[in-house]
Amino acid sequence: MFINKSDIEKVKQYSIIDYLSSKGIQPLKEIGKQMLYYSPLTNEKTASFLVEPTKNVFNDYSSGQKGDIIRLVGLIEKLSFYETFKLLSVLKTSVSVSSFSFSGNSNKQLKMVINSVQPVSNKSLIQYIENRGIAINLGKKYLSEVHFNNNGKNYFAVGFQNISGGYELRNPLGFKGKTANGITLFDKKTNKVNLFEGFFDFLSALQYYNCDSFKNTTVILNTNNNLQSFLNTLSNYQVINSFLDNDTSGRSTYYKIANLGFEVYNQSEIIYPNSKDFNDFILNKPLIVT
């Protein structure tokens, strides 16, 4: 498919530094005009991945790969040139929520300011939701398109609101962030509660059960670190359907609740015992042909 050269040049302006930051990859130090990283392409133990921000190019000595943002994203995301161009061309800017320090200190979280919250309409976000196995009408019921400012730059992502009034943020490049921390609660005044770790698992369950809401009260932790906030409400419930991840953190959270004496059903081991989480399950569930 023909791509206009001028459009390619525009896409090449997409910052490699911001792209790596959106993946949670931060530089170790600055060497002259270049930033030094551990390679995102190999499991190197000695950092040898260099980015020159002014030219917006990279050189990975561990893999022998080098080039521009299109080359890098294609290698990391395992996309063709056209697929990479299409992805970058609809993302007008990248998401970067933390500054990096070259003194060895941990990254300082920057305050994000929401500019606007609107129905999801951006093509890349719609594609992102659908690529997670979620029907767009269902996604639009619970997700918003959040535009926010961080450190003087404007970004956008899908947002899922929590009880603190903040938003859990995700974007197609793997960015995860939030504007304020808290669980999400859909209170149906029932003595049974459905418990999820993340909102994509919640949406995956709705997709799986072919419904747009649950009859039972539903809680999304948004992170297992919010378990105590959920435990503070447990006196209201008698039965807990746990849809947590099938990993160390998910199992630990499940046993903490079960050991308190509540009637807990581990739906994760019943429905998707061989999948990491509900979203992974519906993405890899084989189609049934009748």
State the gist of this model.
The chain is α+β, with helices and mostly antiparallel strands and 290 residues long. 30% of the residues lie in helices and 24% in strands. The chain is built from 11 helices and 15 strands.
Shape: elongated
Largest sheet: 5 strands, antiparallel
What fold name goes in the CATH topology slot of the largest domain?
Dna Topoisomerase Vi A Subunit, Chain: A, domain 2
Distance between the termini: 37 Å
How many strands?
15
The order of strands across the largest sheet is: 1-2-3-4-5
Any overview of this molecule?
The chain is α+β, with helices and mostly antiparallel strands. It has three domains: 5-90, Alpha-Beta Complex (DNA Primase, Chain A); 112-178, no CATH class; 184-284, Dna Topoisomerase Vi A Subunit, Chain: A, domain 2, CATH 3.40.1360. It contains eleven helices and 15 strands. The strands form three sheets. A five-stranded antiparallel β-sheet has the order 1-2-3-4-5, covered by helices on one side. A five-stranded antiparallel β-sheet has the order 6-7-8-9-10. It has a five-stranded mixed β-sheet with strand order 11-13-12-14-15. Helix 9 (248-258) links the parallel strand 14 (239-243) and strand 15 (263-266). Helix 3 (69-77) crosses helix 4 (81-90) and helix 7 packs across helix 11. The longest helix is centred in the C-terminal third of the chain and has 11 residues, at 248-258. The chain is elongated.
